[in-house]
Amino acid sequence: MVGGGQGAFIGAVHRIASRIDDRFELVAGALSSTAEKAAASAKELGIAPDRSYADFREMAKAEAAREDGIEAVSIVTPNHMHADPAIAFLEAGIHVICDKPLTVSMEEAERVRAAVEASSAKFVLTHNYTGYPLIRQARQMIERGDLGTIRVIQARYAQDWLAEAPEEDNKQAAWRTDPKRAGGGGAIGDIGTHALNLATFVTGLEPEALLADLESFVPGRAVDDNAHILLRMKGGAKGMLWASQVAVGKENGLTLGVFGDKGGIEWDQENPNYLTFTRFGEPRQIITRGGAGLGGGAGDWTRVPPGHPEGYLEGFANVYTDAADLIRGKGDGALLPGIDAGLEGMWFIEACIESSRNGGTWVKR
Amino acid sequence: MVGGGQGAFIGAVHRIASRIDDRFELVAGALSSTAEKAAASAKELGIAPDRSYADFREMAKAEAAREDGIEAVSIVTPNHMHADPAIAFLEAGIHVICDKPLTVSMEEAERVRAAVEASSAKFVLTHNYTGYPLIRQARQMIERGDLGTIRVIQARYAQDWLAEAPEEDNKQAAWRTDPKRAGGGGAIGDIGTHALNLATFVTGLEPEALLADLESFVPGRAVDDNAHILLRMKGGAKGMLWASQVAVGKENGLTLGVFGDKGGIEWDQENPNYLTFTRFGEPRQIITRGGAGLGGGAGDWTRVPPGHPEGYLEGFANVYTDAADLIRGKGDGALLPGIDAGLEGMWFIEACIESSRNGGTWVKR
Amino acid sequence: MVGGGQGAFIGAVHRIASRIDDRFELVAGALSSTAEKAAASAKELGIAPDRSYADFREMAKAEAAREDGIEAVSIVTPNHMHADPAIAFLEAGIHVICDKPLTVSMEEAERVRAAVEASSAKFVLTHNYTGYPLIRQARQMIERGDLGTIRVIQARYAQDWLAEAPEEDNKQAAWRTDPKRAGGGGAIGDIGTHALNLATFVTGLEPEALLADLESFVPGRAVDDNAHILLRMKGGAKGMLWASQVAVGKENGLTLGVFGDKGGIEWDQENPNYLTFTRFGEPRQIITRGGAGLGGGAGDWTRVPPGHPEGYLEGFANVYTDAADLIRGKGDGALLPGIDAGLEGMWFIEACIESSRNGGTWVKR
Amino acid sequence: MVGGGQGAFIGAVHRIASRIDDRFELVAGALSSTAEKAAASAKELGIAPDRSYADFREMAKAEAAREDGIEAVSIVTPNHMHADPAIAFLEAGIHVICDKPLTVSMEEAERVRAAVEASSAKFVLTHNYTGYPLIRQARQMIERGDLGTIRVIQARYAQDWLAEAPEEDNKQAAWRTDPKRAGGGGAIGDIGTHALNLATFVTGLEPEALLADLESFVPGRAVDDNAHILLRMKGGAKGMLWASQVAVGKENGLTLGVFGDKGGIEWDQENPNYLTFTRFGEPRQIITRGGAGLGGGAGDWTRVPPGHPEGYLEGFANVYTDAADLIRGKGDGALLPGIDAGLEGMWFIEACIESSRNGGTWVKR
Q1: Which positions in chain B touch D286 (Cβ < 8 Å)?
Q2: In A, which residues are within 8 Å of C283 by CB distance?
Q3: Which residue, of B125, B140, B161, is where some domain finishes?
Q4: Minimal CA–CA distance to B98: which of B71, B115, B75, B128?
Q5: Residue A318 counted as domain residue
Q6: Is residue C3 in a domain?
Q7: How many Å lie between the alpha carbon of D254 and the closest alpha carbon of chain A?
Q8: DSSP letter string over B292-309?
Q9: CB–CB of D104/D80 below 8 Å?
Q10: Which pLDDT tens digit goes with each residue over C190-199?
Q11: Rounded percentage of chain C residues whose pLDDT exceeds 90
Q12: Closest by CA position to C201, among listed C262, C104, C125, C284
């Protein structure tokens, strides 16, 4: 693991997610760029001192050289520290599981892409919401035509935790609102990319053009905290995407609606064990995770019977477990977001910024 | 009543709405442009034969001349038949309660405005969703600052009844998808105007500019059936508005979210007796119509205790009852949509069409 | 109308309900037992002075004698004033629409039954919740076997308005907690009878025995404010019924669940435009009022398209409109609660009291 | 681990739950009473062959003798195989984490109690629903008086998976409907005990008496599949408890409502990240897991920020993590169900059976 030392948030999430299905063991880490903190964090997590590194390059090199070196690394640092470690491990032939967004710039993203292409190692980007069983089932349903031709996509990711300028010592808020560490995007990078990825993952459609109206509502904020985005997808579907960190009353309101000429679905991340599905002219159905009727699909990625809720960590674990399968040569990783999803996200961030700077104009891909 | 004869939909709604609080009596009508149908409809509704007219102009003249002539007229015809009757009755000094949208063109709308200004009679536009008690309470709450400065508006009006080309004999669908009778707007006129009106009514903010991406998804349709709209409001708030008649699974999905720097609200027309309200940093509250806590406001426009649901017809009745008060000189009609709301709606329709024709560009008001 | 003068609650509800479909006109009344108040109330409601009576017996006699006398009377007095007026009007050959519960004792109830049997006039008991379109549809669905053999009934009617001793001047609370005016039952009579009636109306099953554990939680209260009841239905189904006026957080929480060997339904009065329906082994469906699929039934008793919510008043209006049909000889009134429902309700109240007095034992019907 | 071999359900759940917070390692097991299956299961789970036992007694003895022997054992066998292993490990001084219900008879239960009292080892019963963060917070809220004096408890646990006679080869259904392996209770033992435990855990109240009306709706079933239960709690609160395995449309519908003289709460296991809380006379609040306002409590037992749902496995993991703390001498285990909860559950099962056999009479504790 690179990053994820004391005080970090997403590192702990990755560790639980990797552990749930017992497919990974944490044996080495460069958990912090501060040597002392790296060592202390490693000790807490039961990593042997000789496999706790102060520097990710050293770790890539040393682990690649060991007989019992790590097979895969998780990169859970702030955005500006994704590209270099990813490239270092890919070059060392170690599989990379990297947090999103891919990088802080398209230029960096292209460098990672080149490294992925040159390496024998796999690259997985943890767009974890794709791991929710009913999201995967929705993708299946659309693939097999249950919704007909897709016409409209409605995606939202609304939070309120940045509705006011955060306390000075809020580490999570600090780097996310700092363009140097987060990249030029605020809400669009941190959560907008998730919403876009969810939409493209489920529908199988790619964006053709977008138009964005970004805003920084909180005085003094250097990045956007609210984004209104129109999408035009290849093939003719249209979309709306709202990403906000200032929507008071919203905790982690990631929702997706997809509407085709034969059917429609709606899903809400805060209550992810239900999928609303309507065939045109029939009553609305509530599909459950592995439940009756259309429930087959989701049941493939679930651990407990329907009615026993699974959540964020189990969805995240599905990404890790699929990554383990991919590394072990089992399955084709078709459901795993990788470098393409990363590049799409980087295009999204940069196109949003460009569009908004021009007063809200269309930007083609 | 003008329009609302046999086979009509909204006329019957107006009649119930006007009757609920026992403030109106239906005594005269030009219920159809077909004389026979007008007479037959009048008979069914208990209108005396001598007060059933085949022509609205004749009706305006005759009723204005009678000692016991009508005090107010409801105009419930398709959109292209709003302007002329409205002007005729206003000129005859008879109060006008007119269905929305105001007219089929800004030019017609201006003629109505001139007639309103020249007349001693009142003009009410039945943007009936403003009559929902909790919508009025939301307006009060925003007015008194419960949400702080408004930042974001999210409005949706999604239906699916036009997801396929309707049967030939669907009278309601026929005129709504015919530009001659509905005006150039499809979804934007029929439901988009309601969503915009709801947003401006509740927030007290006016649109400064909009950008629209309209689409006619159903082959052969002459007007839009799906609209993605970005809004910029005077004062700096931003909005998104989705109007759709092809969103499979949606029946009458009119929802509103308003987010300020101190609080946020959400409301859903399909379950209108609840309002979600969050003060930043406090738990979400479920406000009920006349219920505990902040419930005072809505209780002023309600007939039964909280927990006993009121619906669409009662909301509509509130507009009628307020109109009766206004006519009787009681109250200032501050909550009643009138000619200004009508003109705003016409601007909205025309600006959407212009924006979309230009490929999706900003149109200022 | 008998009762329903100034300060009354349910009288106004009856008046709106009777007006919504324009099938009744209010022309006479004995609106209060206080002559002055009766006259003032009548004036407010537009009743001619000569048809405002201070006494219901006088009204029955006078109206029966008039050529243009009333055809039907609504009795909306407190419970202890139901029997005598009902009998007086039935004897005068005037149809009776009476609020529930039927009376304050089985002895009175039997007197009303005798009067109904002896009279040519019709008798309707306003168990208004049976008027909700989806409740009627649920009954149809069960009748035609969609749920199979019914096994379990779960009925709840939970409120909180009597969670504390009410203010002295709360007229509604005062008579409802006074055994002389309400009868021996508190929650069981006021709301428990509604829950039982809803269950028997929807399932078509009759109670065979019950067991009740009644409680008066609020100090000094003379009647029950919380009731836990077990039901055994003829044919083998079992039920639970909870009626409470002290369930903090509940406004008018009347819910019904019915479960058979082939399917199950759930319904909530506070959001009555949806019915959850599951066929065993299939996904849950959300049936809407007149909506797609199974929605046919409810559409027969509805005024606006699905997605436009109807509520308490429209459900109540359905009972009045059916009563008008019955009086006019149209339809067989099969959906109208009448004297049998009234007697069943009285048995319920008395059996609950008996069971609870005996420490919670089974009482057969 | 004892039990939990191939084809078992709850064993895998225990393994994930124990792993989530990285506090346990699985190193030994008697995973099946069939030697071959035990060995194969152990291999699959990475247990060394010399620590895979065919017999739990042998395992208790051998592990107690090892320097690196297990500190704790999880017993995840069918109910009739709880008592003997629990006693064997307790006698060997090894901590026991045992699935519920405690045993199949009170006599067995008392034997376990004696072993717990005689042993230095700890005993934890996995009434896992007590691990849900908001359930623990609800307990805190009631303890500190937020609801005032508790008056009414409404508990339900409704499923539909046994609505028909299950397929022959459904291992989970087979033992649960076999009195020899499940004990005399069907629904009451498998899920009713959970509902009771949840109610007593949250309120801190103990049952004083109960009355049960049990039914086996599915032909040929030897145990109850639907239970209607009335509760009287020490101190005067009253309760209703419904447990059903034949409620078509219900997956794992465990819900709890608690109503006091100052406030009320409601919670639903299928969407466990929300708690509805109402103070009398104030609007309903939606409390989230670690969210704003009253959210403090639940945040202590949660891994991700509010809005990121946690579910069944995380709740279960909280029980395991607390057990680890207890074993390590950290904390007092006050939130952990133990032998007392087990005995209460056994009384519940036996009292239900006795009450129902007597036709539905009160049984005191």
Answers
A1: 283-286
A2: 277, 285-288, 291-295
A3: B125
A4: B75
A5: no
A6: no
A7: 9
A8: SSTTHHHHTT-SS-TTS-
A9: yes
A10: 999 999 999 9
A11: 89
A12: C125
Does residue C316 form part of some domain? no
CATH number for position B171: 3.30.360.10
Collect all residues with Cβ–Cβ distance below 8 Å to D202 and sequence separation of at least 6. D135, D138, D139, D142, D256, D258
The β-bridge partners of C240 are: C154, C230
Distance CA D318, CA D320 (A): 5
Kindly state whether residues A80 and A170 are assigned to the same domain. Answer: no
pLDDT tens track for B27-64: 999 999 899 999 999 999 999 999 999 999 999 999 99
Q: Which residues of C touch A283 (CB under 8 A)?
A: 277, 285-288, 291-295
Residue C294: pLDDT over 80: no
Nearest to B286 among D286, D292, D293 (CB): D286
Could you give the angle at which helices D193-203 and D339-357 cross, rounded to 10 degrees? 120
Question: In chain B, which residues have their Cβ closer than 8 Å to the Cβ of A230?
Answer: 211, 213, 228, 230, 360
DSSP tag of B192: I
- Chain A: nearest CA to B32, how far in angstroms? 32
For residues B296 and B289, the answer to whether their CB atoms sit within 8 Å is: no
Whether C104 and C163 share a structural domain? no
* D314 touches D167 (CB < 8 A): no
> Is the complex ipTM more than 0.90?
yes
Instruction: Say if the Cβ atoms of A259 and B246 lie within 8 Å.
Output: yes
Q: Using 50, 70 and 90 to split pLDDT, how confident is the model at B296?
A: low
First to last CA, chain A: 34
B325 within some domain = no
CA torsion sign for C187, C190, C193, C195 is negative
State which residues form the domain around D109: 9-125
- Cβ <8 Å between C253 and B12: no
Q: Coil, strand or helix: which one is B136?
A: helix
pLDDT of residue C296: 65
* Chain A residues within 8 A of C291 when measuring between CB atoms: 283
Measured between CA atoms, how close is D310 to chain A, in angstroms? 5
Q: How many domains does chain B have?
A: 2
Q: Are residues C102 and C185 in the same domain?
A: no
Contact residues, chain A, for B208 at CB < 8 Å: none
Q: Do C313 and B310 touch (CB under 8 A)?
A: yes
Nearest by Cα to B11 from B2, B19, B20: B2
Domain endpoint, select from B69, B93, B125: B125
Give the pLDDT score at B172: 81
Buried b (16+ CB within 10 A) or exposed e, D78-87: bbbbbbbbbb
pLDDT in tens, A90-144: 999 999 999 999 999 999 999 999 999 999 999 999 999 999 999 999 999 999 9
In angstroms, the CA C86 to CA C80 distance is 11
Q: Coil, helix or strand for A155?
A: strand
Angular region, B54: left φ>0, alpha ψ -120 to 50, beta rest: alpha
Is the domain of B153 the same as that of B87? no
Q: Write down the pLDDT at residue A321.
A: 97
Same domain, B104 and B148: no
pLDDT of residue B7: 84
Q: Looking at D176-327, which runs of residues are DSSP E strands? A: 207-215, 226-233, 238-244, 253-260, 263-268, 274-279, 284-288
pLDDT surpassing 80 at residue B168:
no
Chain D positions touching chain A (beta carbons under 8 Å):
9, 12-13, 15-16, 19-22, 46, 159, 161, 250-253, 269-273, 288, 291, 303-314
Candidates A10, A14, A16: best to mutate against D (most CBs of D within 10 A) is: A16
| Spatial contact of C240 and C153, defined as CB atoms under 8 Å apart | yes
Which residues face B232 on adjacent strands? B209, B238
H or E element, residue B342: helix B339-357
